[in-house]
Design goal:
Chain lengths: 124, 501
């Protein structure tokens, strides 16, 4: 048993991923002149003067849409690789490969029907 | 070409397929029924689905172990026995739920029933898996459904608190399990339990033993939460108290049984090399300490409880400790005695919860004094409750006595006398609180003499519980022998049709 060399690659990614922002921001801090003024320390809002508080309340109903979005996200994640290898699977397993995906879609559709009937799609 | 559709695979999965299609159909049906319409039809159909799945599971016996879905899922005597136990438990819980009225579930009746179905589906996946991924998916399906079931009374503060605690601690325990599993995968490069068994041996011998123990330790912590053993038991009393009584019964019986099956699978397949005496005795010690701690903590804290459901929660922690005894000692009659005890546990616990349900519902109170004078009000109810309590305490002519007796034999057979000693001593301690309820029923005067109304469904559960508890107690040898005839070993051998050999 020895560690897979691919784990080394993952470790390198980790280290580079952490080092990059630390080094970049660190060097920037050392090099840049530090002359703050009232105008400079204003929050950047695309050139417009910022108004109000940044603590805006988001409507909690957004989370339902996010959840619904996940249904279709998951659908795509599984459908895409399935579609790519469909032809070769079809040769090997026959229509079963289609039936399996239809079963999967059926369950997602039930989820959608559930959301629909529970009036998640209506904005009140 | 279409041979795959008609393959044997679908037939061996019949119990699961029945449950999953019932859950899907009933959830759609619930959506299209009128708001005001009664959901009793959903309840009855769920019960029918559970019974049908049970029949299919019983019909599956007698075949050699069979692995499907790329060796991730296996059907063998071990999984079928556990499926029958958890389906029987669910059927009784469903019966017990039938008299719940709309107000209690806050018009969420339909959801309640199909969530029970998905929960039991998760349990069935857990007991039938031979792969870490499917095991985990089953575990999460059971857990997520249980979280919602615990919190199904949305306007009840206790129920909210219980659900919240259960979600957070359940999530933490899942994280522990996953972290442990990730180490196992890192060491062996596989999620298949049988492959893990072979490669774990190599890992042990080539200097990675610390990682093997770390993985085992993390997983034991996670499983400790799921089966509610001390010191990971703190969620149990709050959750048991906050949930509706049928849900509590489900958690105490079905969830626990499924989680035990899962622990046995992982320990006895994947981690078997770690158990072998040449390598280590530490693992067995770890489980024994968990068992002893649960017995001591559960029984000691139960002494001070005044709430009936909290008392049952601590009692179930103690019971988890008892059940861990044969597993931690790897006793030579491990499986028959464990199956016997789980059956006894099913009958006595569900029976006790059924009585508790009707009594607390009538008294609108869950304190122990609702049982006061039950003997004068409903003598038969008091008699049934006494049978269950005597069995839970482990006194003769009940299932609980012989169950505990067989468990102790496992410990003594392996010369773990201290563990047997702890079990006997804590059992004696438990007499105090179990007999506290009996004292209430027979020697305290009741608040009113009105007999307690018992819905026939709850009555049926109580009758089944009494028959089971006394029947197992009268014919212990017959039951144990027939349980011994089940080919338990097959649950831990690679099936002949396995893809990977």
């Amino acid at each position: 048993m020895s560690l897979d060399p691919s784990l080394m690659h993952i470790a390198v990614f980790f280290i580079v991923g952490i080092a990059l922002p630390v080094v970049a921001l660190g060097i920037g801090r050392l090099l840049r002149p530090h002359q703050p003024s009232a105008d400079k320390s204003v929050t950047y809002e695309s050139g417009v003067d910022p108004t109000g508080d940044s603590w805006v309340q988001f409507n909690v109903r957004y989370y339902l849409f996010a959840l619904l979005f996940v249904i279709f996200d998951v659908e795509t994640v599984f459908l895409y690789p399935w579609a790519v290898v469909y032809d070769s699977l079809r040769k090997e397993m026959g229509l079963f490969v289609l039936a399996e995906m239809l079963v999967f879609l059926l369950f997602l559709v039930i989820g959608l029907i559930y959301a629909w009937k529970k009036k998640v799609l209506e904005w009140k | 070409m279409e041979q795959y559709l008609l393959d044997f695979d679908l037939k061996v999965m019949a119990p699961e397929l029945v449950i999953v299609s019932a859950a899907a159909l009933l959830s759609v049906m619930d959506l299209f029924l009128k708001e005001t319409a009664s959901r009793k039809v959903i309840a009855v159909l769920s019960l029918a689905a559970v019974l049908a799945a049970g029949v299919f599971a019983v019909m599956g016996f007698g075949h050699p172990p069979y692995q499907i879905l790329g060796d991730t899922y296996r059907i063998d005597s071990f999984s079928l026995t556990f499926k029958v136990i958890i389906l029987a438990g669910t059927a009784l819980v469903l019966l017990l739920s039938l008299h719940l009225n709309k107000e209690e579930i806050e018009t969420r009746e339909g959801e309640y029933y199909y969530l029970l179905l998905t929960a039991v589906l998760g349990g069935m996946v857990m007991v039938s898996s031979a792969d870490l991924i499917t095991l985990f998916v089953g575990l999460e399906l059971l857990s997520l459904s249980s979280y919602v079931l615990v919190g199904i009374r949305r306007k009840d503060l206790k129920s909210n608190e219980a659900a919240w605690k259960y979600v957070v601690l359940g999530g933490v325990s899942s994280a522990f399990i996953l972290y442990g599993m990730s180490f196992v995968y890192g060491l062996t490069g596989s999620t298949n339990l049988f492959v893990i068994r072979d490669r774990l041996m190599q890992a042990l011998y080539s200097g990675y033993d610390l990682f093997v123990y770390l993985a085992l330790f993390l997983m034991v912590v996670g499983f400790g939460f799921k089966i509610a053993t001390a010191p990971f038991q703190m969620w149990t009393p709050d959750v048991y108290q906050g949930a509706m009584t049928p849900v509590t019964a489900f958690l105490a019986v079905v969830s626990k049984t499924a989680a035990f099956a899962l622990v046995m699978r992982i320990m006895l397949i994947a981690f078997l090399p770690v158990f072998s005496p040449q390598i280590s005795v530490g693992v067995e010690k770890l489980l024994m300490i968990l068992a002893a701690l649960s017995m001591i903590a559960g029984n000691a804290v139960a002494l001070k409880q005044t709430n009936a459901k909290r008392l049952m929660a601590y009692s179930s922690i103690a019971q988890a400790g008892y059940i861990l005894v044969p597993l931690s000692t790897l006793g030579f009659v491990l499986f028959p005695s464990l199956a016997y005890y789980l059956l006894a546990y099913l009958f006595m616990t569900l029976g006790a919860f059924a009585v508790l349900d009707v009594v607390t519902r009538e008294g609108k109170n869950e304190e122990l004094h609702v049982f006061a004078g039950l003997h004068q009000r409903s003598p038969w109810l008091a008699f049934a409750m006494s049978v269950f309590l005597i069995s839970l305490a482990g006194l003769p002519v009940t299932a609980g006595f012989f169950g505990k007796f067989y468990l102790i034999i496992n410990a003594i057979g392996r010369e773990q006398h201290w563990l047997a000693g702890v079990m006997i001593l804590t059992t004696v301690v438990s007499y105090y609180y179990y007999f506290g309820i009996i004292r209430q029923m027979y020697f305290r005067s009741p608040a009113s003499l009105r007999p307690i109304p018992v819905p026939w469904t709850a009555g049926l559960v109580i009758v089944v519980g009494v028959i089971g508890t006394i029947g197992l107690g009268l014919l212990p040898d017959t039951v144990l022998q027939s349980l011994g005839k089940i080919d338990w070993g097959s649950g831990f051998d690679l099936a002949k049709n396995a893809v990977r050999q």
